[in-house]
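We store sequence with structure; for instance:
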Amino acid sequence: MIGIELDDLDLAGGVVTLTKTKSGKARTIRLVDPVVQAMMIYLRHSESFRQPGVKALWLNRRGQALTPNGLSQMMERRGKQAGVKVSPHAFRRRQADLRMGKGGSEPGLMTNNGWTTTAMIRRYSKDVITANTMAEVDRLFGDT
């Protein structure tokens, strides 16, 4: 997500195309409405300090592209202010948990996150998968 550029966004359509991925394969993902609204607010705010020629979506305090290390530092600072420990992967785990907890499909989660094996689902959604499995057993066999 750190490599998103302004041209990658289609907020009217509610999508972002991730062109700079680990696998090198671009993918388009849906943005839910609260995320679209938050991004619109962020973009209006960031216009005031964006440096000329900078196409990156996420900016540092100087209006330049935020780096992965800069993201980690910012999250650590904000986490300390909030009294919680956060990391970029904590957000990835949370969105995977939310999606699976709401009955999302494994193929949908894999596509959205650019995963090629189900091992990543087990890694990121272990607790929700266990809860869903228990609920499924109750639903299927609870009356027996």
User: Anything to note?
Assistant: Residues 49 and 94 are 31 Å apart (CA to CA).
